[in-house]
Design a protein that fits this description.
The structure is a homodimer.
Chain A lengths: L1 E9 L5 H12 L10 E6 L10 E7 L2 H9 L1 H11 L3 E10 L3
Antiparallel strand pairs in A: 1-3, 1-4, 2-3
Amino acid sequence: MFRHVVMFRWVPEATEAQKVAVSNGLRSLPGIIPSIRAFRFGPDAEVNAGNFHFAVVADFDDLAGYEAYRADPTHQAIIADYIAPISAERAAVQYETQA
Amino acid sequence: MFRHVVMFRWVPEATEAQKVAVSNGLRSLPGIIPSIRAFRFGPDAEVNAGNFHFAVVADFDDLAGYEAYRADPTHQAIIADYIAPISAERAAVQYETQA
């Protein structure tokens, strides 16, 4: 399995509506991108101080599946229209793991 | 489901042996901490520039399961003995998600 993990910190001015728009956009992707095997995202639960604000974990069979996701135009539009305008910081890792 | 996601950047001086010790330590945890439902970690695949170096995604039934993991003494020892000495930067999110 090939897993993509990404986290964001939002800018302090980010509104609740802007954050909801990110989730609503992401929610559409598993129905659009056939290489997605699992897709779970959400806002930080605020259990620990100092955390990032939002995480996405996306699973694929292999690197090619991830690359199809990365290049997908709907995904790219969500990044450009909803994520980039409120993103202050981004942290990402992709890794191979046992199924 | 309650998911814990954490990433690290290692210090430039971190040796391969030190990085392997992190993975070896983490590998023991699912056999020790009963609240772990899924546990997948690994080094960054180096597909994208600017990434963090290592990610851990741990799944639990609920917040209490995560808190048991967070407090577990073997887990704490792995952090103190293997992770902290080579960690330059840490990014974390915990979030609720659909099973």
